[in-house]
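To illustrate this point, we now present one chain and its tokenised fold:
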Amino acid sequence: MKHTLKDWFMVTRPWGYALSIMPAVLALAYIFYQNSISPMEINWWYGVLAIIASPILQAGGNMMSDYYDYKNNVDRKETFGSSRMLVNKQFEPKEVYWFSISCMIVGNLVGLFLLYKLQNLHLLWIGVAGMIGSYFYFFMKYRALGDLNIFIIYGLLISLGTYLVMTNKLSWEILMIAAAPGLLIIAVLHANNTRDIKHDSVVNIKTAAMLLGIKGSINYYIILGVGAYLLIVICVIIGIQHWLSLIVFVSFPVLMKNIKQIKLADIDKPELIQKLDENTAQLVMMFMTLLVVANFAAGLI
């Protein structure tokens, strides 16, 4: 079966790239802000490399997850989500698997180059943790650990790794700041899993949404969403973020709209929240864009 370049691109689920690119951009923006207060040695080009490598590694992880979801009958014709290209027989499973491996290799080659240049072993454990988390995400997702996996990779490691390659040092501050949008990224996954409780229950897997049930899942989504905004407030109060970062509250009405939607969740009517994961992903993009702009603006003041 022949595929166009567009087919190969679409099978990677490019609509979700912002979830990996923006944490890296956030680290770059925060360094810009920090540097305006206390100048430090920065390699901006390494930051650009990290931003490029992040979606490549995400693409590998996305396809690996789709491969195992298809092989384990989690993704079927009657289910929502996924790229649908395996379900619709547009790609053979082995094609997606080896394309996934190829993307992971390319992304990790960038990481190895940065490791060679920096000679900092902290980058090694960050890279290994990210690689393991990407490849075995499906394994953790089936055991209700997918949320934790996503938070560690997208909520912590991407920003921390980008900060490290640019400054050659670790920062607890970037972990605090990146954790806020990280909570919203978990909410994207949780919205997807809440919608799919009924379909996932017929296969041998367990997601956090299945364990929590509908009422618990609704409350969990609310906690994740509100928690993201409260964490930014805390960062401002303790002095690691400029007050301009409070501009993220411009997106708060979108969260309230999403909360109103998830309150409609019904195991037997998944279509009621069919688009909630997409809506939450849009909220993540708004939240992170505002936070990035705030850090750049604070660095110019």
About this structure: The first helix runs from residue 5 to 10.
